[in-house]
Amino acid sequence: MSLLAEKAPARTYAAHAKPWWQRTLMTRDSAIIALLVVVWTYASIAILNFSDPITVYFLVLDIAPILLIALPMTLIIITGEIDLSVASVVGLSSVLFGVVHREGLPVAVAMVLALLACAVAGALNGVLVTRYGLPSLAVTIGTMALFRGIAVGALGTTAITDWPDAWGDLVQARIGGSQIPLMTIPLVVLIVVFAVVLHFTPFGRGIFAAGLSKDAARFSGVNVDRTKLILFTLSGLISGLAGIYFTLRYGSARGDNATGMELQVIAAVLLGGVSIFGGRGAIPGVIAGVVLIGTIGSALRLDGLSANLIQIITGVLLIAAVIAASVLGWTGRIVGTHRLPKERGEQSSDEPSSKKSE
Predict the structure, then answer these.
(1) Structural domain contains residue 341
(2) Does a structural domain hold residue 48?
(3) Is the dihedral of CA 246, 251, 254, 258 positive or negative?
(4) Beta pairing partners, 174
(5) Over residues 222-227, mean pLDDT
(6) For residue range 100-114, what is the model confidence (pLDDT) as tens digits?
(7) Residue 342 domain-assigned?
(8) Distance from C-alpha of 225 to C-alpha of 123, rounded to nearest angstrom
C-alpha cells in the first residue's frame, strides 16, 4: 500500500504551464510593443522635431480614423472573415454627411443620417456573408467598388467645404493647454469598450470560437451568423464615424476621401498579432500596430520622404505580418509534434515501474 502511495503525482496543467512572465512577455503583442518603442526611440534621436509635442498631436489626429476602423476589423478578422469595404464606407459617409448638410439640415442630423446609412451598408455585407454563405473577401471587394462608385458619382470632382468652424475646431481641439487632442478621450473609451467586449464577455469568447471552428462554436451554443452580422454592421457604423471625423478635420466632403485606407487598417491589425486565419488576436497588439504604422509614416514625412514610399513600407509590413504569422504557426506545430511523443514516452516509462511496485 505504501508503494502505491509513492507513485508519481498526477500530471496537471499548472505543473506544465509556462511561467507568467513568459506568457506575458513572449507574445506577439509584446514583440510589436517592443518594436514600437525601438522605432519611436530611434525617430526621436535621429529625426529633427519628431519628439516635439506638436508632432505627437498631429500623429494622434492622423491615426484616429485608422484606429477607429481597426477596432471592429480586429473582431471581424478573428472570426475568420475580412471587410475590404471600410475605406469606401468612409468616403460614402463623407459624401452623405456633406450632401445632407448642404440641403439645409443641421450638422448633428446629417451625422445621424450618415451613420445610419453606413450601418445599413455594413449590414449588407453581413447579410451577404451570413445568410447567403458568400465569402467575405469577394463580397467586400464588390461592395468596396459599389460604395466608392456611389460616393464619387454623387459629387463627381466637386467637394463640399462649407462647414461651421465650431465643428472643425471641436475635432482638432486640445485638452486644456496641452498638446493632447480632445479626440483622445473618445478613442480611449472605444478602445476600452472593445477590449472588454472581446476579452471579458461571452460574446467575445464566441468571436474567438467562431474563428477557431464554426461547427464547434455552433455546438457550443454560439450563434455564429448573428455574431458576424453584428460585427459587419458595427464595422459599417464605425467606418461611418471615421468618415465624419475625416470630413470635419479636413473641412472637405469628397467621394475619394480615405482611398486606400483599408490597406493601412488591415496591415495594422495583422501586424498587431491578429491571425489572418482567425481565432487569435488581442486589442493591445492592434493598438500598438496602428501607432507603429502612424509613427513610421510621421517619421518618414518629417524626413522629407514621399507618400509613395510610405505606401511601399506599409505593404512590406503587411506581407511581413502574414509571413510571420505563418512561420510562427508552423514552428508551433513542429514543437508540439516533437513534444507529444516525448510526453507519451515519459508516461509509458512510468507505467512498468508502477506495475512493478504493485
Answers:
(1) no
(2) yes
(3) negative
(4) 181
(5) 97
(6) 999 999 999 999 999
(7) no
(8) 12
> Which grid cell is 175?
485638452
Grid cell digits, residue 165: 468652424
Which range has the worst mean pLDDT, 17-21, 56-60, 254-258, 350-354?
Answer: 350-354
CATH number at residue 60: 1.10.3470
Domain residues for the domain of 80 are 25-329
Residue type present at position 160: I
Q: pTM for the whole thing?
A: 0.86
Q: Tell me the C-alpha distance between 126 and 230, whole Å.
A: 8
Residue 229 · residue 111 · CB < 8 Å: no
In total, how many domains does the chain have?
1
The reply to whether 107 falls in a domain is yes
Place of cell 472581446: 198
Nearest Cα to Cα of residue 96 among 44, 155, 45: 155
